Amino acid sequence: MINSIRAVRRAKGLTLEEVALRCDPPTTAQTIGRLETGTRTLSLGWMNRIAKALAVDAAELVRLPQDTQLRITALLGADGAYAPTRPEQALTARATEDMIAVRVASSVGDYRAGDEIWCRRMEGDWSSALNRDLLVPRPAGRYVFARLLNVDGEKLHLLPPGTGQRQQVVGNPPWAAVAVRLIRNL
């Protein structure tokens, strides 16, 4: 069975040992690792124990063939949006193909550390995203995550969410992604 235990565990920032100790009864990190990789059979009992340890629904640990894996495209922090240094998956895998995700690395504006912002890619007609938060690509793997204030021809006038941030202008971006869903763990 293909499972998402590793992706969920990493998204929550937990080690194998931490998950093993959270299981009831506790188990070993080696056992959790074997269940993640499929070298040990993942029974329904194990799935329920691990789901409880990760504080998720057991269905989130099963990856079905038709599920779309939502990849974290950018991380958002006090210094702005930037590309992750290693591949990361969103907390849940129930997204459409035109979605990308931004994980908030440190609290900024209305967003808290750990939030995921799901964005729908769009091209061309930027005016439909006025007064909405956008992720816009910049050269060299950089991004701008900001509120779209104005569209002036091919120029987007953007205001980042942090206090004291200056308006930025991006000319003729190849695409942008408008924020459509906020995923926040309580």
Automatic annotation (TrEMBL):
Superkingdom of the organism of origin: Bacteria
Xref: SUPFAM superfamilies: lambda repressor-like DNA-binding domains
Domain HTH cro/C1-type: 5-61
Protein name: Transcriptional regulator, XRE family
Gene Ontology terms for molecular function: DNA binding
Organism listed in the record: Sphingopyxis flava
Record lineage: Bacteria, Pseudomonadati, Pseudomonadota, Alphaproteobacteria, Sphingomonadales
Listed transmembrane segments: none
InterPro entries per the UniProt record, alphabetical: Cro/C1-type_HTH, Lambda_DNA-bd_dom_sf
